[in-house]
Specification:
This is Extracellular membrane protein CFEM domain-containing protein. Keywords: Signal. It comes from Babjeviella inositovora NRRL Y-12698. With about 120 residues, the protein is mainly α. The protein has a domain at about 35-115. The chain contains 6 helices and 2 strands; from the N terminus they run αααββααα. It has helices at about 5-20, 25-30, 35-50, 60-65, 70-80, 85-100; strands at about 55, 55-60. A two-stranded antiparallel ribbon has the order 1-2. α3 (about 35-50) packs antiparallel against α5 (about 70-80) and α3 (about 35-50) packs parallel to α6 (about 85-100). It is elongated.
Length: about 120
């Protein structure tokens, strides 16, 4: 009985360690210079753009209205998204184009103190 308790404890500890082991982080979240706030703006802009889309494309009255949630988030996203654009652009270019907004980030920094990422072409 004394031997079985340490074995049980070892088995439980090894299972807890396996469960707690971190998984790989998506590339966008690994961008060291990107702030949490920038991920918040851009990620939520993606979600909001989806609420204004349908089978025939974007409802621009919903998406592009001055008081829409997408419009409220996208300016801040574009101001900070240089470090994230490779990951987020595929989700944001179409709704930005639908609203006749710039389809590349307009800011010059990823976050305070970071430098502008090189522009890429597809």
């Amino acid at each position: 009985m004394k031997l079985s308790i340490p074995l049980i404890a070892l088995a439980v500890a090894s299972q807890a360690n396996a469960v707690a082991a971190p998984e790989g982080m998506p590339a966008a979240f690994a961008a060291a210079a990107a702030s949490y706030q920038c991920h918040l703006y851009c990620g939520n802009a993606i979600l909001e753009s989806r609420t204004c889309s349908g089978a025939s494309g974007y409802d621009t009255k919903c998406l592009c209205a001055a008081d829409s949630a997408f419009t409220g988030l996208i300016k801040d996203c574009l101001d900070c998204a240089w470090c994230l654009w490779d990951d987020y652009s595929k989700y944001l270019v179409a709704p930005l184009a639908a609203c006749n907004l710039p389809t590349v980030p307009t800011g010059t920094e990823c976050s305070p103190g970071a430098t502008k990422a090189a522009a890429t072409t597809a």
